[in-house]
Amino acid sequence: MYKISMVSLGCPKNQVDAEQMLYSLKQAGYEIGVPEAEADAIIINTCGFIEDAKSEAIENIIEAAQYKIDGNCKAIVVTGCLAERYRDDVTEEIPEADVCVGIGSNGNIAEIVKNAIEGNAQNSYGAKEDLDLNGKRILSGWPFTAYLKVADGCDNCCTYCAIPKIRGRMRSRKIEDCVREAKELALGGVRELIVVAQDTTAYGADIYGESKLCELLSELCKIEGIEWIRTLYTYPERISDDLLQLMASEPKLVKYLDIPIQHADGEILKRMNRRGDKESLLSLVKKIRATVPDVTLRTTLITGFPGESEEQYEQLHNFVREAQFDRLGCFTYSAEEGTVAAEMPDQVAEQVKQDRAEHIMETQLDIASLKNEAKIGTVQRVLIEGWDDYIKCYYGRSAADAPEIDGKVFFMAKEQLLIGDFVDVQINDVLEYDLLGEQL
Question: In b/e form, how buried is each residue of 91-110, taking b as 16+ CB within 10 angstroms?
Fold first, then answer.
């Protein structure tokens, strides 16, 4: 049977889609996970959220096409958000791509790939609602950490964001379906579960009439074998007292909140079709820290949104200094076609956007360094991810670190350890965003 290689780009939610496609391909008899040079078909599961992501996707498509010359590849298959967003334009404008598959056709990936390899490539775009949120998966990352996608799509309609156009309206999975998958993951060796959606705090509102995130998390905490449960993409206006109380009282819920705030100026937030202002956001941060001691707070920000004045930027910069987030990522505004913000007047110059983002990240590095230095002498529970052969030590993550986006803990050990186990590490030093220590 044919051999398949897959490259998955973008966010954890896209990764879950890729893992479902891998399961479908294996069930159909394909050999998966082979090197690109040996593959009969290479699938590029793309992100299409912002300009940088689109550029990365195109680069990967062009690089993969080289294996048509140097390897066995007979077809380049493009899936994911770029494919859904631009559809036939992908194969028309990128001749290296043989077939384009919208998210609603992911369930037919095995047949689509077969046809493409055999010279009968045909683009396919099922309805967005046809994407099966309960499909089985083959994990493509660590065997001990897995994402649990509890919903797809989004109803927030932020003016800068194309996700509702790409993914459609929010569709939540039933609690029992999420719990069933989580139990299967636990039986397979998963010890850290990361709950994701475009807006996890809105989970369940479409099918239950109100958010059911707390109920879902409570059920997930009952699953034997799962030791850490982390929640990403929690919107500030929907962070309830119940959620904070649950996080404070439930040992399996790591004390970590990812809150995509985007800005702190009230007028900018209003133009983004988001709520709040600097005062309300600082009040929320204060309440979270009072309710959940030792919580790690992460956020993402955007500089250079249309019309952002120097004074509004300074408001954002001052907010960063006052809020003292443990983790923070700052991105420049990307004008995405088809969004309301792309048509707004007073677009900010690219260099100004970049300078503002760099300024914020310089400030955040100072904040993060001080917070990390405060951990010297403490003991951190670390999930072991691997061995660094260059510096001859183990590395992993503490409860304060989400995979891929946050820092690491590098540590010396007194004995041979198993990847995927938990270990207590005393912190002795810091290196920017990372911690250095030794096993107790």
Answer: beebebbbbbbbbbbbbbbb
